[in-house]
Amino acid sequence: MPYGFQIRRAILDLVRRLLDSTGHEEVLFPLLIPEGLLKKESEHIRGFEDEVYWVTHGGLEELDVKLALRPTSETSITFMETFWIKSYRQLPKKYYQIVSIFRYETKATRPMIRLREVTTFKEAHTVHETFEDAERQVLEAIEIYKKIFDELGVPYLISRRPDWDKFAGALYTIAFDTVMPDGRALQIGTVHHLGQSFTRAFDFKIQRADEKLDHPWQTSYGISDRVVATVISIHGDDRGLALLPSIAPVQIVVIPILSGSSEEKEKVLIEARGIANRLRSSGFRVSVDDRDWERPGAKFYYWEAKGVPLRIEVGLREVESGEVTVARRDTLERVQVRVDRLEDEVRRLLESVEDGLKERAKDDFRARILRTSRLDEAGEWVESRKGVAEVPWCGREDCGLKMEEEVNAKILGTPWPHEVVEGLSCARCGAPAVAYVRLAKTY
Amino acid sequence: MPYGFQIRRAILDLVRRLLDSTGHEEVLFPLLIPEGLLKKESEHIRGFEDEVYWVTHGGLEELDVKLALRPTSETSITFMETFWIKSYRQLPKKYYQIVSIFRYETKATRPMIRLREVTTFKEAHTVHETFEDAERQVLEAIEIYKKIFDELGVPYLISRRPDWDKFAGALYTIAFDTVMPDGRALQIGTVHHLGQSFTRAFDFKIQRADEKLDHPWQTSYGISDRVVATVISIHGDDRGLALLPSIAPVQIVVIPILSGSSEEKEKVLIEARGIANRLRSSGFRVSVDDRDWERPGAKFYYWEAKGVPLRIEVGLREVESGEVTVARRDTLERVQVRVDRLEDEVRRLLESVEDGLKERAKDDFRARILRTSRLDEAGEWVESRKGVAEVPWCGREDCGLKMEEEVNAKILGTPWPHEVVEGLSCARCGAPAVAYVRLAKTY
Questions:
Q1: Fewer beta carbons under 10 A from the terminal one: N or C of chain A?
Q2: What pLDDT does residue B288 have?
Q3: What is this structure's pTM?
Q4: What does the pLDDT average to over A360-376?
Q5: Domain that holds residue A325
Q6: Pair (A267, A301) in one structural domain
Q7: Is residue B359 part of a domain?
Q8: Nearest residue on chain A to B58, judged by CA atoms?
Q9: CA nearest neighbour of B439 among A172, B401, B419
């Protein structure tokens, strides 16, 4: 719907700005991928074959070749890169697109979290001459994603996913997870070093600086509409949304409190609209709620639910005193502000709401991470929906899978960047630990 | 590809700006439409059933309900409107979205002109209390589309499509057509008065101001990626693209002409980069082509093909004389400009290129419209790919269809707004004419 889409547009602008300014070029690839192309990389298709939607008919005719709705675009993009990229001189190459991707989910769907159509998926695909340059790109992508989530006040853990849970076709996957208010972890971004899996499968070769022909290296990374879901869930409260001023479609709502004679009402309305126009011309996004069939209390409630950072109340008393009441959405505090100092005060208050929401989210997040050497403690933490538990781990897959079973949770992976662990024993098997591993209930 | 997508982004920004500023709200609806929903409006589905792509499988399972890739979104949007809109107080309501739509074309496809996936389709959908208000909306939409095409320098004819060629489910369709360089007409935008077809089919009712419940009225209108195709085809020439400065991803390319000693080369490079930076800081979009493995001639050719409006050549002579050579893409003229007056001159030249390209397109367009009372003359005009012919018409469908057959062309419709025709006879049957009708070869 429109209001939600405006929030999404603000987030898309932020993502575009950060990708454009780091040399990523926006492109647009077809939705439909012919079956043969999707199946070229065998590990990749094994990872996706249960979840691909197939188009089989055009009009009343059956198609000669089945067409997949893209579950992701590595195959179609690599296919075109074989025509477009011939030389190391063109590298590194960084493409991105913002499109819908499709998964035939058999689990229950949830708005913006688990969907069959993942809308405005921001997927980046890069090509490099060497393994090392692709690894450098993984770091760049992580830095970009940090900035995106920092600007949106969404706290995160960065984990290297265990091998059994990496992207189908990747050498390794680095993932961003946040913790939702119900204590479950939510994957909000992933970065994959693809190695040469796809360039080999498509026999995509370039001329290297040393004049040899070789398969180049790739990375890919993506953020879905979950970023919208987290911004809503993490900053909101029982009254509804609480939006960061930086992405709020309406930063300030002005509510005229109409009472007394019709002349007095008119006076208040004129003052309210005047204030709104002044604030607009200072660059703020402002609405005036002058609906005459709603009472002020209902309007307060309505705009609080929509998460508008500041509410300005203008009544007869305010018109006469030269002061207005300003209420902030995050703390629900109300303060008196002189109208002649309104712009400065509003600017200060908006900054304070922005910082306040981000700080609150960070504090909440910190309290949700438990580090312990005992698996039963970790299990209790996770089971009671407190958040993420970190325990020492020997690094063996079978031990990891058994941990997941015993704790009835999922392994998010090990902390990234890698943290050296010395003198600790695996919380499950007692063998020397090589890393902490993160356990959580997930979406 | 990236360069093309930047042109598209500039056009999308323009469309969004004009729709947003006239109270249209951006939304995002699902791609997949269940068969039952698509088939609710019987005329609509009859118009589309040969061209709909069907998703029949998810993973390895057959779906219970077939899902259509949206050929357009009237059905899914009207379905949701029944939940969202209850009262005249919410009207008029204007939604739009920018998405891919799909048609299983059996005719030969052409890039950006006839595609199975029509990308970044800008479709608007509006709801109104009365027939008249919907008609007023048709006028508003036409004004918006005029502005879009005027700003892009794309000339157009506005026609009321004949009844046999209107949108499936509409009361009537107003269409924008341009004429491509090969003399064929290309539909570039359509506006439909939908009447109550869809609101009846979905039993969508609102409370009117007079408290009665009734089906509201709708319009819809759309512009496809053909707008990109026309901008490229109409302004381009045998050397390639010629882009309007307002939408050119690169407005100015600076080309250092390297010769002499390496010290002299360095001097020229520094000067070229300095000029580019100065122009950038004045707000122009500038590239420097400092590739050392390409010759100046090859670079000229490359950037001409990309349609960059201005090229600045910087050589040793220029560095010493304090003047540079500026070449414009539209007329290919070259002028000397003093470096200390560069910003002003470049601004003036860009405006001149913008106006020049638009004027040239308008002049070409005017020469492509022939008004005649003789059908054979009209036929010759169209057959020799000169453009559009207008002949008097009695208004009868059978006579129109026979005209199409005899002239071997398509009827675009009658001029909009309606032009009163008196004392003329139908070019085919001789009966009194009610309007001119436009005939053309089409894409």
A1: N
A2: 97
A3: 0.95
A4: 97
A5: 252-352
A6: yes
A7: no
A8: A53
A9: B401
